[in-house]
What does this fold into?
Amino acid sequence: MQRTLTQLAPQLVTLAAVVLLVWVVFPGFLDIRLVDGRLVGPVIDILKRGAPVALLATGMTLVIATRGIDLSVGTVMAICGAVAAWAIDGGFGLGGALALAIVAGLVAGLWNGTLVAIVGIQPIVATLILMTAGRGIAQLITEGRILTFTHDGFAWLGSGTLLAVPVPAVIWVLTGIAAALLMRRTALGLLVEAVGINRRAAALAGVNATVLLIAVYMASGLCAALAGIITAADIRGADANNAGLWLELDAILAVVIGGNSLLGGRFSVAASLIGAMIIQTIDTGILLAGFPSEYNLVIKAALVLVILVLQSPRFAAEWRTWRAARAEPRPAGQVQEDAP
Amino acid sequence: MTNPRLLPLYATIAIFLVACVICYAQFPYMASTRVLGNLLTDNAYLGIVAVGMTVVILSGGIDLSVGSVIAFSGVFIAVLLRDTGLHPLVVFALLLVVTTAFGAAMGGLIHVLEMPAFIVTLAGMFLARGAAYMLTIDSVPIDDPFFTMLQKAYYLMPGKGRLTLIGVVMLLSVVAGMVIAHRTRFGSSVFALGGGVQTARLMGVKVGRTTVGIYAFSGFMAGLSGIVFAIYTGSGYPLATVGTELTAIAAVVIGGAILTGGAGYVFGTLIGVLTMGLIQTYIVFDGTLSSWWTKIVIGGLLLMFIVLQKGLLRLSTARLAGGAA
It folds into this structure.
């Protein structure tokens, strides 16, 4: 527990700093009240609105840990939302709609995983195919319309509450915990990291890298399906054009803010989830602070740049050199050897 | 023995010709200079930005910021023309300086921080889109007399097809891109970088300078594309051209360039853009097909080309291995 907290320290400090900043500008930020049996307040709102990105970030973390990337998650959200809405309208019932949507997400993941692991296409291109074609497929399902539905059970998934907490928040927290436990309480996480660091070496050491890679993309598809279901349930309709639009970039950003390297290897699902919450807090905070929402992107970009500089390998090397030079002054010639 | 690297280009051209024949067989009226003129005009901005993207991809990089830069350019031009008395040409020059510097800055960051181009240009994408929002959140019309003149400038081809100014700009950009990529020292450095940074450095390529140059070129092309887009639509809108970067990447891949870098042709990109435009034109002519089929067909084409490249790559490695034995 101590170690986990130490590892998450940078992300937690960033989140705390962002929350503090918003709180200073908007003092009512931390207020939480109980109204009609449900908690309300900006913080609760962030937990609810951040659900799609948090879910996508969970799957994306695993994909990125294998040195991959999944650009198709936003589109898969749209497909799964469309499938769910179509199934509800078609009278399949809640269970049938959820099952079909989740199967759609898994099939999308299987497709991506097969292209990456068996055909051997680089992940960014392999998932680009589904990203381009996927919205067309989603529109094919909705026939170009916004499919609306009335089904209280399904809508509850998007706007209902469970023990006063919004259901989307419950779903992403549970998914995150399940993913983290599955990775850390079994050897799976270790194997994923091994494949990410060196797929060939991992395969030689007996890891079934092909199956593992496909499974990771399917996990990402599953998370995208859950996010798509929540989004569709929230607006009580499936919008093939706009559901999950550009959320893949927010999800990647969340993973990067979480301190996970895009070059694969060591990963932390919890850190990515905190990253997702940081992004959502900034989004909501900018609105609450009364800034026009057009500042949103510029502030986000500045934040990404700062994080990039802090994470860059060269910066880390320079920092170490500088620390070493301060710790024991050495002749200039020797210091030079440390430089890359 | 033909160069195996030319095969994707031949495949691209063959598919384009087959697509032309199919279109002609179904709709004989499509073989007119009017359709050709519209094809060039409608895809002018995409073609220009795809030329910049080709160079970036040849170097093994990627530039996700171009769609936002095009939107920023339109807004920049519209707002400056509305609020200041500057001549449009001065505004164009200012804009190109800004976008080139923006690209160069991203290239510099990629080199200095040793970060993947993907994430640096993602930040650039947010920044450019955000800058466009900060200028205005409305669609700003452009009603400058000189601008209207540019919009109406065209050469009447035989058969009443209009070869518009922006279509010509696109063709000239492709020629310029071909010269830069295939006939200059900078172009050779780009190909060397795409083959591998370490080997390029050992060969004496100035990696930093080339990286900055590549993204500066892409920024310049995105700015030029923004000008063309502003002329095409006659307005500046910060929400315009969302996702153009991915369409441009798709055009480059369909054009036969390999996304890992080091192999490809700028001319192929032009064919890729025209193929995508042709699909759209076909759907318009057909009238019963819905627009989402465009996306599905383009996705299918992408898959086909990538698998084709994979096969070719395997073939040439196998032959290299055979030659070494």
About this structure: Chain A has two domains: 7-293, 299-340.
